[in-house]
Prior knowledge:
By secondary structure, the chain is an alpha/beta fold. The chain has helices at residues 9-19, 22-29, 36-43, 84-87, 91-101, 116-122, 137-150, 168-173, 183-190, 193-200, 223-230, 237-247, 259-267, 289-300, 315-323, 333-365; strands at 48-50, 65-67, 70-72, 76-78, 106-109, 127-131, 154-158, 250-256, 272-275, 305-309, 328-331, 378-380. The chain starts with 8 loop residues before the first helix and ends with a strand.
Amino acid sequence: MRLCDCHNFHDFRTMAKRRLPGPIFDYIDGAADDETTHRRNSESFERCDLVPNVLRGVGQVDMSVTVMGQKLAMPVYCSPTALQRLFHHEGERAVAAAAAKYGTMFGVSSLGTTSLEELRRRHDTPQVYQFYFHKDRGLNRAMMQRARDAGVEVMMLTVDSITGGNRERDLRTGFSIPFRLNLAGMLQFALKPSWAVNYLTHERFRLPQLDAHVDMGGGAMSISRYFTEMLDPSLSWDDVAEMVQHWSGRFCLKGVMSVDDARRAVEIGCSGIILSNHGGRQLDGSRAAFDQLAEIVDAVGDRIDVIMDGGVQRGTHVLKALSLGAKAVGLGRYYLYPLAAAGQPGVERALAKMRTEIERGMKLMGCSSVDQLSRANLRFR
Length: 381
Ligand SMILES: Cc1cc2nc3c(=O)[nH]c(=O)nc-3n(C[C@H](O)[C@H](O)[C@H](O)COP(=O)(O)O)c2cc1C
C-alpha cells in the first residue's frame, strides 16, 4: 500500500496498521473500557443530515475562522497528542510543519516528543500548549512560564484526565513508556523490523516538556504512573481560576462536557472550551461531543468560543459541527494515522483531503463562508 492509495481516514488507518508494531497501533487506535464512546464519536455525525441550498453563487469559498483570537485558514486544527515520535521518527515536527503549510493551529502536548520552544521557532502559525495540572503547584507555574517565554499564544488545560483511562488494549500488549512489553507485544515488534530500524537510527526518544521535572526516559516513572501519581485529582475550579489569572492571556479548557462547567469556564475568564471525551480514551460511556454541542452553544456560545473534537473523519462532519455552532473542530486520529503511515507527506495529504472536502461540501451546501452554515441546514433523524 502506498500513500497515493490513501483517499480517506480508513485508508490511512490501514496503512498505519501495516507499518506500526501492533502495540503502538493499538495505543493510537484503542480507547477506554469497551470503546463504546470511541465508536459513538463518529456515529454521532450520522444522526443528522445536511440540507443544502442551491444557486447561491459559491465561486469563491472562504473557509477561514477566528478562534481564541487565532486566524485559521480552515476550520480544523491538529489537537494535541502524546508521543508522536513513536508513530513516526519525524513526530511533532511533521505534524507542526503540515499544520503550518495549511495555515492551521497545532497543539503541542506536554507529553510531546519535541520541545515547544523548537516548534515555536520553526513556525509562526498559531500554536496551543496543552498541559495537565500537577500536584506540585510550582511545576504548574514553571510550565506556564516556559510556555510564556517560548511565545505560546494559547494555553490549553486538559481537564478530563484527572486519572488515566482504562485502556485494555495497552494492558494486553504491555504498552507503556518506557517500554515494558510482554512476550506477545515483543513478537509484534519483531514482525515490524523496518519500524524498529527507523526508530533506532533516529534521534533518541525524549519528552522535553517534562524531562526537567520527571525522570520518564530513565525509567523511574511510566506514563501511567505519571497520571496516577503526579497529576492532582483534587484540582478544583478555584485552582483553575487562579491559573487563568496568572496566565492573563488566552486560556482554554479541553474536556468540558456539561452546561454547568461551560458556564463556570466563562465565569473564570476562559477564552474557549473544547467539548471532548479525549477520543473515547478516558470515561467510556460518556457522551459524544457532537451530541452535546447544541446544548452548550445555546448556553454559552455568545460568550466563549465553543470548539469540539472526537470522531471527525470527513469534511461533512466538520460542516455539521459548524452548523450547530462550533467555532472550530479538533482532529486527533485523523492526522495520527497518516503520520504513522508516511510522516509529513502523509499528514499533508490528509489535511489537503480535509480542506478539499470542506471546500467541496461548502459549495454543495450553497455557502461561501463558514458563518453561512447554521442549524437551518441540518435535520436530525
Ligand atoms: C494517541 C493519542 C494521544 C493523545 N494524547 C493527548 C494528550 O497528550 N493530551 C490531550 O489533551 N489529548 C490527547 N489526546 C486526545 C486528542 O487531543 C483528541 O481529543 C482526540 O484524539 C479526538 O478524538 P479523535 O482521535 O477521534 O479525533 C490523544 C489522542 C490520541 C488518539
